Amino acid sequence: MIDQTAQIGDRVVIGENVVIEENVKIGSDVVIGHHVVIKKDTVIGDHVHIHDLTSLGRSPAGNKKMARKPPVDLSPLIIHPHSIIGSNCVIYRGTILYEGVLVGDLASIRENVRVGNDTIIGRNAVVENKTQIGERVTIQTGSYITADMIIEDDVFIGPCFSSSNDKYMGKGNYPHQGPIIKRGAKIGNNATLLPAITIGAESIVGAGAVVTKDVAEKETVAGNPAKPLKRT
Amino acid sequence: MIDQTAQIGDRVVIGENVVIEENVKIGSDVVIGHHVVIKKDTVIGDHVHIHDLTSLGRSPAGNKKMARKPPVDLSPLIIHPHSIIGSNCVIYRGTILYEGVLVGDLASIRENVRVGNDTIIGRNAVVENKTQIGERVTIQTGSYITADMIIEDDVFIGPCFSSSNDKYMGKGNYPHQGPIIKRGAKIGNNATLLPAITIGAESIVGAGAVVTKDVAEKETVAGNPAKPLKRT
Amino acid sequence: MIDQTAQIGDRVVIGENVVIEENVKIGSDVVIGHHVVIKKDTVIGDHVHIHDLTSLGRSPAGNKKMARKPPVDLSPLIIHPHSIIGSNCVIYRGTILYEGVLVGDLASIRENVRVGNDTIIGRNAVVENKTQIGERVTIQTGSYITADMIIEDDVFIGPCFSSSNDKYMGKGNYPHQGPIIKRGAKIGNNATLLPAITIGAESIVGAGAVVTKDVAEKETVAGNPAKPLKRT
Fold first, then answer.
1. Does the CB of B220 have a partner CB in chain A at under 8 Å?
2. Which of C51, C144, C190 to mutate to test the interface with A (most CBs of A within 10 A)?
3. Residues B110 and B5 both lie in one domain
4. Which of C16, C18, C37 would best serve as a mutation to test chain A binding (most A beta carbons within 10 A)?
């Protein structure tokens, strides 16, 4: 079902049973897999490739238990040219993926996120709302990027990374702050970051480290709780 | 495809390519996204919202390697009013979601689970079979809730939590017991619980902690293995 | 949509809105759920069951940031008889699942993987490219099996396991090596393995352990970093 208000460019390949809702804009040379859903107002640039069974442009929801209500007035999802979206992904309204972004299968990205040029969001990764991700960042498979996080350019995050932004663990409606990861830092697989800490530029966090306080620029930390490694 | 034996209430919005199998009962004011599958006998209450590409009511499967064979005679999946189910979710027969439950995108819930009123099951979370979850519980994104687990009311579980229920790790067909998390406990992100331990009421488990034995009521533990923090 | 070049055996049950592309071969007594996508050239043996909303046989993709370009000339995906594939899964070309394999919902398996007879790949698990998995292996829910990994027969991997294969964390295009897990080893939930280490036959890795070097045959290790437990 393609809504008659949708605008579709040249040489677009559309799979079986694709749903394109009202006011969607699709550039040229786009490939759309089977059973894809593109929700209203979504904007897709030239040469974007969207794999099967993915839903683009959904709006957030909330229940009674959620302290912070979802925003109601989001701008459309915008996917810039040459980006690739995997199979069975879910990406929300209010988010912008810049040029050449790669999103792996079964990943989800919430509202009001920015993802810079040529960044990779791995398979099964989750990016929460209001997080800013720079250019040429690698976020590997299964990593969890909490809300209100800042990830600068050229950061590398290994698989199964975990972060949090709520130091009182669900006590209510107060400001949350995710970690800040500065330019070029490298974080090993299954590392854990606590809320609001800063990981310095070009620092290294070891695999499995539990980081409870700031890491200085170019420092290497490991362990639970993470401590600086002795320089050799 | 809507089977002719399905009963559908008033003001129900049904997306494109939805499959509703035999004997499904759907209340009024329900919204069903595109490409949703509602398998036979499923019961959906009023004001439920189901997002795109979700499958509700599947039956369990097993292969030769599985020590415990899946049950064959499950009651239908029942979703009570005002619940919200995300995109690309999978929820099994034999399970009940009570009122106002929120299930995030890409989450899955197996058979014979109970989820209490106003509880949140986060995006990408997995809940295994025969687990009981109370009211107003928060289970954040990517958490793994093993089988045979009991989670009481008002528990908070941060993202990327891990639990297990099999202390002999796959040796065969003997009783399994997941952890028991008592009322109001809070568990930090990427914490690990071993089988059959009890986390006391209103206790706190730090982010990244590996909990190998019981935690007392109101106690705070952290580290690997987790130990009580000194009181200040 | 079933392409006219597809070959389909006897007594095959095909759900609603299934897409079967060109040159697909499907055996007899196969069950295919709703909204399944079977991409070109895929080969499916007798008595295979594929649940809803799964995509089989996709090709890999890459963006500018990826040091190693995806292969272009992959053999078809082959699924041997009596295997079961869950809902919302993604499995790539170039991979072979042998007899009686069980793949859980929302799991993904990349190109050039081999999965031995009667092995279980849990729900939400991810298996990266070029990994070899033996027979009767259990990989539990949410585990991350990196690329270039070898997992021998009868290994048990608990839920939320994490591995990595890149000791320089994204520095470029050099050889990668995932861990090697020898026959009958057991690994607890949320354990972390560093690149290129060997886990000895019949050894045990405790839940939450961070394993930074080789583990000897029949040894038990735990902690961060993991150390041998004293024998009792």
1. no
2. C144
3. yes
4. C37
The answer to the question of residue B67 being in a domain is no
Residues B148 and B181 in one domain: yes
pLDDT digits (tens, 9 = 90+) for B73-128: 899 999 999 999 999 999 999 999 999 999 999 999 999 999 999 999 999 999 99
- Sheet strand arrangement including B162-163: B162-163, B192-193, B210-211
Does a structural domain hold residue A8? yes
> What whole-number distance in Å separates Cα of residue B201 and Cα of residue B118?
20
Percent of chain C exceeding pLDDT 70 equals 98
Taking contacts as CB-CB distances below 8 angstroms, the residues of chain B near A64 are: 100, 118
* Shared domain check, A88 and A5: yes
What is the extent of the structural domain holding A11?
1-59+74-99
Number of domains in chain A: 2
Tell me whether residue B3 is in a domain: yes
* pLDDT given at position C175: 81
B115 touches chain A (CB under 8 A): no
- Domain match, B14 and B52 both: yes
* b (16+ CB within 10 A) / e for A98-122: bbbbbbbbbbbbbbbbebbbbbbbb
Residue A6 domain-assigned (yes or no): yes
Pairing mode, strands A220-222 and A227-228: antiparallel
Do residues B143 and B190 share a domain?
A: yes
**Segment B122-155, tens digit of pLDDT:** 999 999 999 999 999 999 999 999 999 999 999 9
In chain B, the percentage of residues whose pLDDT exceeds 70 is 98
Q: Say whether C95 sits in a helix, a strand or coil.
A: coil
Q: What is the CATH number of the domain that holds B186?
A: 2.160.10.10
E strand or H helix that includes residue C3: none
Output b/e per residue, B95-128; b: 16+ Cβ within 10 A: bbbbbbbbbbbbbbbbbbbebbbbbbbbbbbbbb
Chain C positions touching A102 (Cβ under 8 A) are 61-63, 65-66
Of residues C93, C156, C155, C159, the one with CA closest to residue C126: C159
> Can you say how many angstroms the Cα of residue C139 is from the centroid of all Cα atoms in its chain?
9
